[in-house]
Structures are given as C-alpha cells and as structure tokens.
Design brief:
This protein is an alpha+beta fold. A hairpin with a 4-residue loop joins strand 15 and strand 16. The site of alpha-D-glucopyranose (GLC) has 13 residues, from helix 9.
C-alpha cells in the first residue's frame, strides 16, 4: 500500500488488513463444515498470524504479516466482521480496535491493525503479506526478503516485464482506440487465462465438475498460439493422450489425477484436434510434431500425432445416421442439443460442417508436408459430406441444424421454435460447404432473424415448451444460454463468416457489438466486467436483454482474438509464410501491426486508399514487391511489410 498525505495537516491513520484462510481441503470444507469449524487453529506468534490446521496431514502453514509493527490482530472472522455486519462494515474497523484473540476452532482469518502517523506531504509504503510455506523458518526468510528495501518493487517489475514481452509479440494500431487497447492488452490476457484454466474453476464454477474441457482446450490454443511455444506443444500432447484408439475423445479430463471423463461420446470433441494441431504447426513450423508418438487413452498402444489425427477423422466418417450426416451422440458444440434418442440416430449437420472444415485443413497439411498420397482419399471424403449436406440440409434460405432420432428436422422454417440456428449458417460458410450464393443468403437471414443491438442470438425463435427429443436446450428460459441467448462464442464465427464473404463492414459491426468496453455505456444493465468477454448475454427474447453472465472462462476469448487478427486484420500464419488477407471496414484508412512469427518480428503497414474491405493490390517485403499475398519465411530478425489494398 502506497500512502501519500496530500492534505495540509499531519494525519494519524489506522490501517486494517483482512484475509480469510481456507482449511487446505476445500472439498471437505464444503461437505463437512462441522469438522473444519471445530478443528481450525489460528494464532499470533511474534509478528505473524499463523494458520496451521492439519499441519500433520498437509505440511503447510499459512501466514499473514506486515512490514510495520501492528497494534492489534484478529484470528476469527466472526470477531473481525462482527455479528450482522459484512466486509463492507467490519466491526473491527468501526470499533477502531481488534480483539487480540487466538482461535482454537472457528473460522480462521488474519486481520492486522497498524497505526501510522503521516505528516503533511509525506509518503510511505506499507507491505502486507499473505502466503504459505512448509516451515516457520521459511516463512521468516521469505517475508524478511520482501521487507528489504526495493525487493517488492523489483518483483512487481518482473511481473510487468513478463506481461510486456507477451504483449509485445502482437501490437496493433487501428483507427479504434478501444480495439487497440483490447487487442494489445486485455484480450491476450484473457486468452492466457483460458489456456491455463480451460473451463475449470472460476467464480461461476467450483472446479470439480469439469476440469479441462476437451473441445474447449483445443479451441483455447487458437488465440494464444503466437504467445506460447513449448506450452502449446505440451497441451496438445496432453489432449492427444485423452483420445481413444477409435478416434473419439474424452469430453474432459483432470490434469492432476489424469482421469478422463465422458465415456458417452460427444460428436465434436475429437475433430477440434485437427484445427488446433494444424494451427500450431502453421504458427510454429514444428512439422516434427506429426511424428511424435503418443499413447491412446484406454490402451497401451500408441500412435503418431498424424495417426491420431487420421483416427479422429475416421471416427466421424464411419459414425453417421440415415441421411449419412454425422451422428449427434450426446451433443455437439451445443451441449444442450441432445438428439441421440433411443434409436441413437440423431444427426448433427453442424458436426458435418466441422468435419468438412477439418478435412480441408488436413488435406492442406498433407500437401504441405509431403504426404500427397493421403490427399485423394480425404478429398473424396470432403466431396461426399459436402454433397450430402447440400442436398439434405438446405432449407430454402438457410441450412438446418440437425435431425432428431426420428428424422425430424431441427432448425427449419417448418419448425415452431428454433427455426434458424446461427452456427449452422456461420459454419456453412467457414467450413467451405456453402457456395458463395448460399452463404450470403444464409448470413443475410442470420442478420434478419438473430441480430440485435447486443449481438447475435444463437437461434430464433426461442424454445418455449419442454421437448426431451431436442434436449436440455428446451429447459432454459427463452433468451438465456443455449436457448436463444447471445452466445458470445458463437458470435465470433459469424464475424469470421462475414470476413470470408468479404463483408468487412458487417464483420466489424458484429465485432464491435461484443467488444467489452462497448458495454461501458450500458454497465448497469450488462453487469459484466468491461475488460473481459462473457460467455453469454441475455437475448432479445429475455426480460433482461443485455445482461451478461459467466465472464472470463469462455471460448469467446480465444476465438475473438483469432478472428480479429487472422480474419479482420487478415494476418494468418501459414506453413510457408505469413498470409496477408485483411477484411476491414471500408471506412478504415488502414492499420499497422507488429507481430512476431517464428522468431521474426514483422512490422506491417496496411493502406486502404480506395476505401474497400479487402483485396490485396500490392505487398512489398523490405521494399521488394512479392507476388501473391504470402510473405515468405525468412531467417531475418525483422521484416518490414507494406500492403496496399485495392481492386
Ligand atoms: C460452454 C461450454 C462449451 C460449449 C458451449 C455451448 O461454453 O464450455 O464446451 O461448447 O457451452 O454449449
């Protein structure tokens, strides 16, 4: 705490610190509170508060101390807070003094009371520490180090330097200061968080239910690939080790126990591997990864990464329903669309799109890594699924979403509810299944039926009757979550689709609707933090339209960064260079970007003199014009790229 007396008087101040201690066994603390309530120990010794309950089991001592001598302390939350009070008006602070009482059983905390005189104009630093160590000697050593002059400032500087070198790998300047601050700082911060925590533990989830989500973590690698090298390799290897021999994957797993879960398969988990691995190789150039041997989850057998990928594609190739569209199994990306039914015949058109996209990525990978012999087979598979979807799933103006166990269509104009699903249109375009004409028509219909001032609803209209054959999507109130909420994650794919269609103005409009600082103006309605993406915003059919929920751990973070940098700015790592293919709003005069790619720093200037959305007219690399729109690989440390857009 840094204090400066800016008044014209000398001040006598009382400072109070407060930290709750947990019992080192969160699950037991929750399930068996009477136990922890009666076993907690917390006490003052010398100038420390120690909490060493169950030391015999965990060899951990928690502590709290201050750089300044303290006049009083509390070890019990009830003493410090007081009956009927809260952290907003703790009894200890109101009374101006603490109880100086150790506890033997109770709710442990560390609270300190430090008195301080600060004369006019004077400044002072006061340090409060909470931490854990194995012994009291270690605690004394560590805390004394922090109290030595300058030490804490140096550590803080280290943290800042750590983030600076991450942020410096991608710095942009566009006409929007909100976008600049988001892409340069906040979005990279959030994608780091989702990379490590997946959907594990946050204020919205206790951390025991889900661990690392399989599809989630694969998608979480897309955004931060430029920041992480070895760690990305590590996470992908880990994910592959939770894939079964027949190609399907666990739905999630716990890192520490190495337990996978989800024996009842989902229809999409395994396919995301193709997208995450190809993205990793394009970014890093690490083609050797394809030959790495990794065991399958349930057996002692192992396969190369390339074989794992082929097996993933195989699983979706052979598991199809009556229309020859991939089986829906328990669910696809949409956890709440549960279409399998008693016959096990529900089909997911959306998985068909993902499968097609994965095939295109895989074919490209084979071509670029000298595996030409595999190309023909996969091209044939891609041709088939594309034809099947186009003949069975086009509804006249848009693509349908699925077929249930009885062959009944979902996401069709014929339906009463859920006539149009956002993902079935955006992915029709992204997957390469839709023709330009169908793609534009489908995305126009999305605009007509799903667009709102706070973003795109996941479907329209919301379900208003329970229907077990469609699944838990029908249990949610209309306008919330998967039942026609503005699912932010899915909005990213609509932006992507608009970029592929070349409609940069619409792409930017969708992007800006969800940009968190945009919600500053509606903060009391939106409620979520203005510097992170939330999972969902209540949709137009909900009474609290505009209210955001479940911030931080969402696939939105990674995809927003990916879509903005890869498709709006159009800077895309590729096997043999950096593709430059912007799709910006026509009113932008251009932008600049500094981006690290395989140890080279690219400084790019993009000019838009004709006020168009995309289309590269010329690219000059270090002053020399190159053909096409790929900046070739180089061993140089720095490269200057000048791009002019034009017809
Ligand atoms: C949640 C889940 C994600 C799922 C999405 C849609 O965000 O974490 O895995 O795809 O909901 O149901």
């Amino acid at each position: 705490l840094h204090l400066k007396n800016e008044t014209t008087e000398d001040l006598d101040l009382s400072l109070f610190s407060y930290a709750e201690f947990s019992i080192f066994d969160a699950a037991n603390d929750r399930d068996n509170y009477q136990y922890t309530y009666n076993i907690a120990t917390c006490y003052k010794e010398d100038s420390y508060i120690f909490h060493d309950t169950l030391y015999c089991l965990y060899k951990i001592i928690a502590y709290h101390c201050s750089s300044h001598q303290f006049q009083g302390f509390d070890c019990d939350r009830e003493d410090f807070i007081g009956p009927y009070n809260t952290e907003a008006n703790p009894r200890g602070v109101l009374a101006g003094r603490l109880n100086n009482k150790n506890i033997s059983g109770g709710n442990p905390c560390g609270a300190l009371h430090v008195d301080l005189s600060l004369s006019e104009g004077k400044e002072e630093d006061i340090l409060f520490i909470i931490g854990i160590e194995e012994t009291k000697e270690a605690i004394k050593k560590v805390s004394q180090r922090y109290f030595s002059p300058g030490y804490t400032e140096e550590r803080l500087q280290e943290v800042k330097d750590y983030w600076r070198q991450i942020f410096d790998r991608f710095i942009i300047e566009t006409p929007s200061s909100e976008i600049n601050s988001f892409i340069n700082v906040w979005n990279p911060y959030q994608i780091r968080t989702t990379f490590y925590l997946s959907r594990g533990a946050s204020i919205y989830e206790g951390g025991i239910r889900r661990g690392m989500g399989y599809r989630d973590s694969n998608q979480d690698t897309l955004g931060p690939a430029y920041q992480l090298d070895d760690e990305l390799h590590g996470l992908l290897s880990e994910l592959l080790s939770f894939q079964y021999e027949d190609g399907k994957a666990c739905h999630g797993y716990f890192k520490m126990s190495r337990e996978g879960y989800g024996e009842d398969p989902y229809s999409d988990d395994h396919l995301w591997l193709i997208l995450s691995i190809t993205n990793y190789i394009k970014e890093s150039g690490d083609t050797a990864f394809l030959d790495k041997k990794i065991p399958y989850y349930e057996s002692t057998k192992e396969g190369t990464v390339f074989q794992h990928m082929e097996q993933a594609l195989e699983f979706s190739r052979v598991n199809y329903g009556d229309h020859h569209i991939p089986l829906a199994f328990h669910a696809d990306w949409n956890d709440c669309l549960n279409l399998r039914g008693p016959r096990g015949k529900g089909e997911s058109v959306w998985v068909g799109f993902l499968y097609h996209r994965a095939l295109l990525e895989f074919i490209e990978l084979c071509r670029m890594t000298g595996k030409e012999d595999r190309v023909k087979k996969y091209e044939e598979d891609a041709r088939k699924i594309k034809e099947i979807i186009n003949s069975h799933a086009w509804d006249g103006y848009w693509y349908v979403r699925a077929f249930d166990d009885n062959g009944r269509v979902i996401g069709s104009n014929k339906n009463k509810y859920g006539k149009i699903f956002l993902n079935a249109q955006s992915w029709a375009v992204y997957s390469g299944v839709a023709s330009l004409e169908r793609g534009k028509c489908a995305m126009d219909m999305v605009r007509k039926h799903c667009f709102s001032e706070h973003g795109l609803a996941l479907l329209w209209p919301a379900f208003r009757e329970y229907d077990r054959s469609i699944g838990s999507i029908t249990f949610y109130p209309p306008g919330l979550k998967e039942n026609a909420g503005i699912f932010c994650h899915a909005n990213t794919w609509a932006i992507l689709a608009e970029c592929i269609l070349g409609r940069g103005d619409i792409a930017m409009e969708y992007y800006m609707r969800l940009l968190p600082p945009h919600a500053n103006e509606i903060a009391t309605l939106h409620k979520s933090e203005p510097y992170v993406y939330a999972q969902v915003i209540a949709g137009p059919e909900h009474q609290d339209f505009g209210l955001a929920r479940n911030s931080w751990l969402t696939g939105t973070a990674s995809w927003m960064f990916y879509v903005f940098t890869h498709y709006i700015l159009g800077i895309r790592p590729f096997y043999n260079g950096l593709i430059i293919d912007p799709c910006i709003p026509s009113y932008w005069e251009g932008f600049t970007a500094k981006r690290q790619f395989r140890k080279t720093m690219y400084t790019m200037t993009v000019k838009n003199p004709e006020k168009i959305c995309g289309g590269v007219k010329t690219i000059a690399v270090d002053g020399k014009v190159v053909q096409g729109n790929i900046v070739p690989l180089t061993s140089g440390k720095e490269v200057k790229v000048e791009v002019v857009l034009g017809k």
